[in-house]
Write a structure and sequence with these properties.
Helix content: 25-40%
Number of strands: 17
Radius of gyration: 22 Å
CATH class: Alpha Beta
Strand content: 15-25%
Distance between the termini: 29 Å
CATH architecture: 4-Layer Sandwich
CATH topology: Chorismate synthase, AroC fold
Shape: globular
Bound molecules: ligand EPS
CATH superfamily: Chorismate synthase AroC
Number of domains: 1
Strand order of the largest sheet: 8-7-9-15-10
Order of helices and strands: EEHHEEEEHHHEEHHEHEEEEEEEEHH
């Protein structure tokens, strides 16, 4: 499976082309729109989310509610485009020295503006920020929705939630089943399972907003139902945990990733890090603990996957940091753009999407995957085989 995306934040639309989804998999527009709406929610978003109501238009690869095996083409319109048709126009400017509004010459520290400008030779750094904007995660969530649909049909559930915002840390969630985690997180404006700290998180966001500042946090994705042995130890670029780490770090503003006990493992002896193996007739091989977060040797252990990512505070600030005007080389405040004060809740939905994508891609690579029914059968056969191994 592979996908690429295209489109600028204030351009006409965002697009993704997806290849490798098995033929015959049920898929509806609503499956994708549901995930797009989840990404748009979350306390701390700016005014842009009031303009957009993201809806997908499937323009290839699906017929009468089933995938065809041909590439899927998904398009999401930017409603804000109508306010930007001149600034972001596609056609050449009529007058050569015509002044374009909202030119960016004072790069924002922490964004791609300056470095991207130097790399591609854009002296109007709007050419950089329009593409490096997290608006692009809209279509990554659309691609992830397709992957998530496949996983759900194969009995694999993905749940993302927020663990920390601006230094306010939630307790590790305690739940009976993953559906409870999914439901409770869904009801929270900051996508946090812990109701006790939810209010404090909201206050932290309010405080940041009042100060013209921004705050980051930590999101966690938990996946249950993965078959044992997906991924591989035989080559560095086939290790599935490494692919997931890359996917998490590819989310805008993400700076770190850990599995299971993560960085805490540095302070513990081996006897308190590894997960003992037990076997029973019902479940086959299971572990008494899950400190490694679902991976051994780059392969799934069959235990829940537990992966966390850290998001830095968004670098667009209403009280901007010092920067330099690239035209005059004089010191100035960085340019002010409309922004969110905290996008950690939304980022937990993006994290779900990118993790789901990597898992679905690994599954379709490993099992018979031209036809959905064949894939389903070969996963069921593998589960039986692994249990009795
Ligand atoms: C973003 C800036 C804001 C965010 C945007 C990401 O957009 P605008 O510049 O239009 O106010 O709202 O996020 C989205 C549009 C989105 O859909 O998540 C940025 O610069 O990264």
């Amino acid at each position: 499976m592979r996908y690429i995306t295209a489109g600028e934040s204030h351009g006409p639309q965002l697009t993704t082309i997806i290849e490798g989804i098995p033929a015959g998999m049920p898929l509806t527009t609503e499956d994708i729109n549901h995930e797009l709406a989840r990404r748009q929610k979350g306390y701390g978003r700016g005014r842009r989310m009031q303009i957009e109501t993201d809806m997908v238009n499937i323009t290839g690869g699906v017929r009468h509610g089933f995938t065809l095996g041909s590439p899927l083409s998904l398009v999401v319109e930017n409603k804000d485009w109508k306010h930007w048709t001149k600034i972001m126009g596609i056609d050449p400017l009529i007058l050569e020295n015509q002044e374009v509004k909202r030119k960016v010459t004072r790069p924002r520290p922490g964004h791609a503006d300056l470095v991207g400008g130097i790399k591609y030779g854009h002296r109007d750094m709007r050419n950089v920020l329009e593409r490096s904007s997290a608006r692009e995660t809209t279509v990554r969530v659309a691609a992830g929705a397709v992957a998530k649909k496949l996983l759900t049909l194969l009995g694999i559930e993905v749940a993302g939630h927020v663990l920390e915002i601006g230094g306010v840390r939630a307790n590790q969630p305690q739940y009976e089943n993953i559906q409870e985690l999914q439901q409770k997180t869904e009801e929270s404006p900051v996508r946090c399972f812990d109701e006790q700290v939810e209010k404090q998180m909201i206050e932290a966001i309010e405080q940041a907003k009042a100060n013209g500042d921004s705050i980051g946090g930590i999101v966690e994705v938990i996946v249950e139902g993965m078959p044992i042995g997906v991924g591989s130890y035989v080559q560095y670029d086939r290790k599935l945990d490494a692919k997931i780490a890359q996917a998490i770090l590819s989310i805008n503003a993400f700076k770190g990733v850990e599995f299971g006990l993560g960085f805490g493992m540095a302070r513990l002896p081996g006897s308190e890090v590894h997960d003992e193996i037990i076997w029973n007739e019902d479940e086959g091989y299971v572990r008494s603990t899950n400190r490694l977060g679902g991976f051994e040797g780059g392969m799934t252990t069959g235990m829940p996957i537990v992966v966390r990512g850290v998001m830095k505070p968004i670098p667009t600030l209403y009280k901007p940091l010092k920067s330099v005007d690239i035209d005059t080389k004089e010191s100035f405040s960085a340019s002010i753009e409309r922004s969110d004060s905290c996008a950690v809740p939304a980022a937990s939905v993006v994290a779900e999407a990118v993790v789901a994508w990597e898992l679905a891609a690994a599954i379709t690579e490993q099992f018979c995957s031209d036809r959905y029914e064949l894939l389903k059968q070969s996963i069921e056969d593998h589960r039986v085989y692994a249990k009795g191994f």
